[in-house]
Amino acid sequence: MTAHDHRHSLYTVDQVRALDRRAIDELGIPAYELMQRAAAAALVCLRQHWPQARRIAVYCGPGNNGGDGFLLGALAREAGIHAEVFALGESRGDDAIRARREFEHGGGTVVAWNEAVALPPVDVHVDALYGTGLQRALAPEVAALVGRVHATGAPVLALDVPSGVNANTGDVPGEAVQVQVTVTFIAPKRGLYTGLAPGYVGTVQLESLGLPETLWQGARADAELMRPQTLPPRPRQSHKGNNGHVLAIGGDHGTAGAIRLCSEAALRGGAGLVSVATRAEHLIALNSARPELMAHEVNGPQALEALLPRATVLAVGPGLGQGAWGHALWLTALDAQLPLVLDADGLNLLAREPRGFSGPVVMTPHPGEAARLLGCDTRTIAIDRYAAVRELAKRYGAVVVLKGAGSLVADPQGRVAVCRWGNPGMATGGMGDLLTGIVAALMAQGCDAWQAATLGVSLHARAGDLAAKHGGERGLIATDLLEPLRLLLNGRDA
């Protein structure tokens, strides 16, 4: 493992605990020293983000996360920052108790929290209530404290993980602290990057606490963060036949927009040729709006079969419908045994008639489609998105993209990649159709299913961020991503 590679690795809570134990047992670093390093790193983070802060309030739970908070309070006082510390009950564990005493011996006063206590006016609140161990909803009295912290309007710094956020899964089962910055220690926790968590964690800043790279050598990670990538430049002698032929299948009555977005994204994603198999009523609109597309009337399986020999990759589902027409085309496409991207009604039909895949297939469900494919409800998907995407990939023998904040990509062997880009403006109709076309275009250009899914998801999300940067999130529409997508594919990001 090269230097800093571990910063792109994501770990479960148990894996982080194993790293922590390894630092203690194999590197000989006492647990209390690790706590001191965490507090020092937190103070540096606090001053980086709020250099003018002169008053802070630190809320300490009973465990080691609270111990981090007490030591941060002590260091802040030494640095000339007024620190008021509130404790939820007595500290537990030798290190947490020692940290509390150190704060008190330095002249600090610990206020026992109850609902009658008034919150002081401060520049920054610090959440040191619960660390990675809490995987249930906050108790009502703690939730009430969180609500009062939010009501002050002052920014919040979380130590390791915002309290109430499940650091293992990204689920938020009840009230949680919504912070501007999370300073997380030793290794990135996988739950901070997906599901509901991105709405609570703010900017995540990793602090390795000065631990040597040898700590991560041989350590198993659960997932990885995607990195910015694109395709290499094309050879000067390239022609359209070198870059694949995507056949987009869909667009039942009234849904021409979905198949157009998919097919146009395949063009912008670099496919050499893009054909569209759709209803006759859509041909004039497609040909006039985007003449580069080759639109074909397909009234049933026989007409579709005539188009299949020229196709490199099939993109199936946008606007397909679940009626007799869509079902017949879906069966024909799946039986063709061509590389395949399956989305929307292509997935809903699969949920009705399950089958596994052995060839290159990418499935791109949102949580509702994922729930139908697994025969559960969306809450079950949200509770553990990592488990859900892995089960989907294993059950169907495909690479699966579980869309949403912090989209996940899994393969049947259990590998998972996490997208750290994207924004709320992308929660609009048509965004999924674009992704289907982009992934299909990448497969057409020679990417395998895993490469196409991870690169496609990252390009799609980064294009959304570029579009939002120039025009704002609210009002963002799917076609706004097409020009930024082209820039990113050509190695440009502005």
Percent in helix: 25-40%
Q: What's the total helix number?
A: 17
pLDDT < 50 runs, ≥5 residues: none
Order of strands, main sheet, comes to 1-9-18-17-16-15-14-13-10-11-12
For the record, the CATH architecture of the largest domain stands as 3-Layer(aba) Sandwich
**Outline, from the CA principal axes?**
elongated
Strand content: 5-15%
Subunit structure: Homotetramer.
Domain YjeF C-terminal: 223-492
Family: Belongs to the NnrD/CARKD family. In the N-terminal section; belongs to the NnrE/AIBP family.
Catalytic activity: (6R)-NADPHX = (6S)-NADPHX; (6S)-NADHX + ADP = AMP + phosphate + NADH + H(+); (6S)-NADPHX + ADP = AMP + phosphate + NADPH + H(+); (6R)-NADHX = (6S)-NADHX
Helix-strand blueprint:
Blueprint (H helix, E strand, L loop, with lengths): L8 E2 L2 H13 L5 H19 L5 E6 L3 H15 L3 E6 L6 H12 L4 E3 L11 E5 L11 H13 L3 E4 L21 E5 L12 H4 L1 E5 L15 E3 L19 E5 L6 H13 L4 E6 L4 H7 L4 E4 L3 H7 L5 E4 L7 H12 L4 E3 L2 H8 L8 E3 L3 H8 L3 H6 L1 H12 L2 E4 L5 E3 L5 E3 L12 H14 L4 H23 L10 H8 L5
Parallel strand pairs: 2-3, 2-5, 3-4, 5-6, 6-7, 7-8, 9-18, 10-11, 10-13, 11-12, 13-14, 14-15, 15-16
Antiparallel strand pairs: 1-9, 16-17, 17-18
Helix pairs in contact: 2-3, 3-4, 7-15, 11-12, 15-16, 16-17
Describe this structure in words.
Pfam families: Carb_kinase (PF01256), YjeF_N (PF03853). The protein is α/β, with parallel strands linked by helices and 494 residues long. The chain has two domains: 220 residues, YjeF N-terminal domain (Rossmann fold); 250 residues, UDP-N-acetylmuramoyl-L-alanine:D-glutamate ligase (3-Layer(aba) Sandwich). Helices cover 39% and strands 15% of the residues. It is built from 17 helices and 18 strands. The strands form two sheets. An eleven-stranded mixed sheet has the order 1-9-18-17-16-15-14-13-10-11-12, with helices on both faces. A seven-stranded parallel sheet has the order 4-3-2-5-6-7-8. A hairpin with a 5-residue loop joins strand 16 and strand 17. 52% of the residues are buried. The model has no long low-confidence stretch (mean pLDDT 94).
